[in-house]
């Protein structure tokens, strides 16, 4: 594939520098072991716009400070797994965030609750996470909307929302998040989600006032979270059990830490319909962040 791209690139007419414009992409670059790639050079990458190869002229780490919001499902569906399989991976994830990152932590429960606001101290996060006692229903979608509203006010930073949720009866989130249909509410926030099939069981008290179809309705968390990830340039992972949450959060942390800004030359004109980035070095893995771009 790369050989064909190189041949196509060489056969193209050579535009003069004055006739070209510089375009920018935000990407993550990691190595084959899932760690942040180091020493990436422009010649290691090729941008493909609508099937046409473009020359990369600059690639450098994204120096914007990261502001992240972590939304944790604290419903009864998480009760059997939180302490055993989720707590330690959450703390480990925060420790792997880039230097100078700041984070806010939310829980869902029966209503969205911010349990830590705009911190950079993992010790404070550890204390806040220890106080989480999963029970009741899940206002997941409301928590997503409130966390996004809080994030989009942070100008000048790289923004990310990370959701860790269990599947289960959706008692408190009967409607999709408003951000699902309103791109302006999402702003430039990348949305990452880990959805696991939890083993918790909703207590009888949580079902008071619920109609039978509440429990029979198939959960839509996966569909909604996947759509938000694709539309925002983030990632969605659905796992069978929470035993895999550490691996999923490690991949998300590597993606955030591997953020780069890539500049390339292209003839002036309309924006391309489809843009991909190919790595000439086999050990590199590149993912395009920009919305409406193919990964």
How many individual domains?
2
Biggest pleated sheet:
6 strands, mixed
Fraction in helix: 25-40%
Poorly predicted segments:
200-218
The pLDDT mean sits at: 82
How is this structure best described in words?
By secondary structure, this protein is an alpha/beta fold. It folds into 2 domains: 16-62 and 259-288; 66-256, von Willebrand factor, type A domain (Rossmann fold). It has helices at 2-11, 82-95, 122-130, 140-151, 183-186, 212-216, 221-232, 245-257, and strands at residues 21-31, 45-49, 52-54, 56-61, 66-72, 102-107, 113-119, 158-166, 190-196, 236-239, 259-266, 275-279, 284-288. The strands form 3 sheets. The protein has a 6-stranded mixed sheet, with helices on both faces. 39% of the residues are buried. The model is unreliable at 200-218 (pLDDT under 50).
Which short descriptors sum up this protein?
4-stranded antiparallel beta sheet; Rossmann fold; 8 helices; single chain; alpha/beta; 13 strands; 27% helix; 295 residues; 6-stranded mixed beta sheet
Topology (SSEs and partners):
Layout: H1 2-11, E1 21-31, E2 45-49, E3 52-54, E4 56-61, E5 66-72, H2 82-95, E6 102-107, E7 113-119, H3 122-130, H4 140-151, E8 158-166, H5 183-186, E9 190-196, H6 212-216, H7 221-232, E10 236-239, H8 245-257, E11 259-266, E12 275-279, E13 284-288
Parallel strand pairs: 5-6, 5-8, 8-9, 9-10
Antiparallel strand pairs: 1-11, 1-13, 2-3, 2-12, 4-11, 6-7
Helix pairs in contact: 2-3, 2-8
